Amino acid sequence: MDENSSKQIPENVEDPPNSRLFVVTSRSITEEDLRESFSPFGEIQGIWVLKDKQTKESKGVSYVKFAKSSQACLAMEEMHGKVVVDETKPIKVFIAQSRSSTRHRDVEDEELTRIFVMIPKTFTEEDLQNTFKEYGDIEYCVIIKNKFTGESKGLGYVRYYKPSQAALAIENCDKTYRAILAEPRSKVSTADEYSGGGGGGGGGGNRGGDYMSGADSMNQYSYPMADPSGNYSLMDYRSSDITRCLMMSTRAALTQEQIFALFDLIPGMEYCELQRDAYGMSKGHALIRYSNLGSAVYAKEKLNGFEYPPGNRLAVNFVDDGEDRSSPVGRMAMQFVASQMMSSVWNGPSTSQGMKQPMAFSGVSPMSRVQTDVSLPPLKKLAPPESKTKERLFVVFSPSPLPQDILEDVFCRFGSLIEVHLVPGRKVGYMKYAEKQCADDAMAALHGRIVNGVKMKVLLADPPREESHKRPRTY
């Protein structure tokens, strides 16, 4: 941000949090254009178009400040990728981070959709869902329990499908729930027990010291610890135990969506979450919980050792779910369920406990080198290298770029692909097409899709500049 722009922006832009948008546009887009496009979503408190200090021309970057976080989130969801003025490129809209940060959060960011609440200890997960479902569609609810007693700690999570829904819940729910956006687990202490109540923290602002440390560690489960060889061992786990909770470990970069779809093939899944580090990257394992022992046993037997994608063998193990099965009756019930499910596993599923059909990732054959959640057209030949480029696509990869041959395999299927270019040292690349329609078809089919465990954002690339006063890079 240049000096002139920073002087224009007041100090209260972070109040409330996540109420300011970072917008990337064409340089011809004006403040009036932005105001007209974004005003339907709520009260706009300010718009700042960043301009070059020398030329006074727009840099193609703007900030839009709303009165409420829910308004900003809704605007982001609705306006990202939209064309504001005819014959200009689609705009990109993100939630702006604090002014000291360089990172921006987008509509798919998990940190914007999961809220953390204080609830009565008598609440069940059904009570929690019924209380918060009026604000939007809920993906899952979790109540934090003491791993030794199984009793509720009076804390819980609610995960929505959209950031605007989570923001509405925080703004409008009863203040006694003290709802806030949940911090990533890796940012808080892993203290074993909830220290409870009073303390000094007070207030509704920074509540990390109040009670987040015990709750956000999700300490009712036993987590795997990785050794240098890449193997995982479970803490506090006895091999004879069978529980409703599973821990899946993977060496490949699988996404939350892929893991959810894989384990949701077995009926009864009520919770699934990929564990992430402080930077939002996958830790290589996910926690899955089922509503009954039978489904958990079946899932472990079917998916432990399963290769997805081909060459990546999943490891699935039981972990402590906090339930006491030490009594003779509890142990007998567990053994009965296990024996029944083992019989079903080895003799083939014949009841509703069997895996759902068809398989979630049916777009390719099981042994194909390309695993994706979209049905792809047949392979087509590359366009001649000397072909004139009519359109370029800009692709962002998460968590890491795909190999060039895989990208050619995927993007050539829409026809007229000239070449694939990956930017060294960055998680981005360009696809050059000889025909604009082919590029448009590829973007429509592949944007937001997952290929071999990598999620892709596929956008139209900015046209190359014919001239520039800037000194060319020499690397």
From TrEMBL:
Residues 189-208 are annotated as: Disordered. GO terms for molecular function: RNA binding. Keywords: RNA-binding. Residues 19-98, 113-193, 243-321, 391-463 form the RRM domain. Residues 195-208 have a biased composition (Gly residues). This is RRM domain-containing protein. It comes from Sphaeramia orbicularis (orbiculate cardinalfish). The lineage of its organism: Eukaryota, Metazoa, Chordata, Craniata, Vertebrata.
